[in-house]
């Protein structure tokens, strides 16, 4: 799945949508103390009152929110074996094919039992499963036909899971309109925090409007903090790398090739070269997958950045010293997520400065009066707490 696929299905989660229908919903309450299923409830989604539907739909959109490689990860299932009767891919596929709601619920219950096995949750947890159908319009040239694009669609049955913690209501003073008096709020019913899901997934993944049952889209609760145990033991997925992991690997490889010390201009050139790889041709209607950097691309980037002495053997050795996989690739968007936003941090004991990769060329470290200083070239006045700074001449 790419970001366009995710954005399209995400915006369909709304009441009365004709391009996404939800048939069943299955809620499971898991107690923190015992880590077991305390209560379960299954029913047809259309039977929920409208307000409940709106709350759940907003929650499902949040599950699919975030960037690929940071909060969302396309995970490949590990191969199934005879020793894994509860393999997640098998349970989900069986649930997807189930004709009766009870059959689907049974498969999801097996999956939920894997979630609570040998796990102690921080708070009570509510796991919500839904199944439905997602319809994606075919793209056709309007000059070729006058038929409404809705007449022909790609249909993808899907299962989505959302995991949410519960919170106890805070003690407060309320006004009782019936008794016309102020009194303490005595409600003790836990509140499901639908605004901040702590995890979830979408099955199957889909590429080019075709379902891919060998992959699942996993959603983490926090950026760059996937639950690896959940991915491996519950979803039976293969190892994943986050955007932060990719960036760290890239930095280590560069250090092995050019050394720990580097000029700001060289670093600026490296980021600019990587950014060029991510630029999309304006004539392309649908951008392809973000380009990936392998050994060959890293060598090209360094040479484009002015590091003339680098060769293929140096990059190969750097790869082997940092990662085990000789064919490892990093997404360019993970290394330079935004070329224009202040995504680079300059850290010193005196101050921390945020700057964009495109402006890194204006930063230099210089020696002044025997001391190391950060020099930033600016075209406009510098304002600190509303005061305009006076230009000072540097004297040797």
Order of helices and strands: HEEHEHHEEEEEEEEEHHHEHHEHEEEEEE
Strand composition percent: 25-35%
Rounded to an integer, what's the Rg over CA atoms?
26 Å
| Backbone structural class | alpha+beta
Roughly how many Å apart are the termini?
Answer: 58 Å
Could you write a compact summary of the structure shown?
With 396 residues, this protein is of the alpha+beta class.
Sequence-ordered SSE layout with sheet pairings:
Blueprint: H1 3-10, E1 20-30, E2 37-44, H2 50-63, E3 72-76, H3 88-97, H4 101-116, E4 125-137, E5 153-167, E6 173-176, E7 181-184, E8 191-192, E9 199-203, E10 205-207, E11 210-212, E12 215-220, H5 228-234, H6 243-258, H7 264-278, E13 292-293, H8 295-304, H9 312-322, E14 330-331, H10 332-335, E15 344-347, E16 352-355, E17 363-368, E18 371-376, E19 383-384, E20 387-388
Antiparallel strand pairs: 1-2, 1-4, 3-12, 4-5, 5-8, 5-9, 6-7, 9-12, 10-11, 13-14, 15-16, 17-18, 19-20
Helix pairs in contact: 3-4, 6-9, 8-9
Task: Give structural notes.
With 396 residues, this protein is an alpha+beta fold. 28% of the residues lie in helices and 27% in strands. The chain has helices at 3-10, 50-63, 88-97, 101-116, 228-234, 243-258, 264-278, 295-304, 312-322, 332-335, and strands spanning 20-30, 37-44, 72-76, 125-137, 153-167, 173-176, 181-184, 191-192, 199-203, 205-207, 210-212, 215-220, 292-293, 330-331, 344-347, 352-355, 363-368, 371-376, 383-384, 387-388. Strands 1, 2, 3, 4, 5, 8, 9 and 12 form an eight-stranded antiparallel sheet that branches. It has a two-stranded antiparallel sheet with strand order 6-7. It is globular and about 75 Å long. The protein starts with a helix and ends in an 8-residue tail after the last strand.
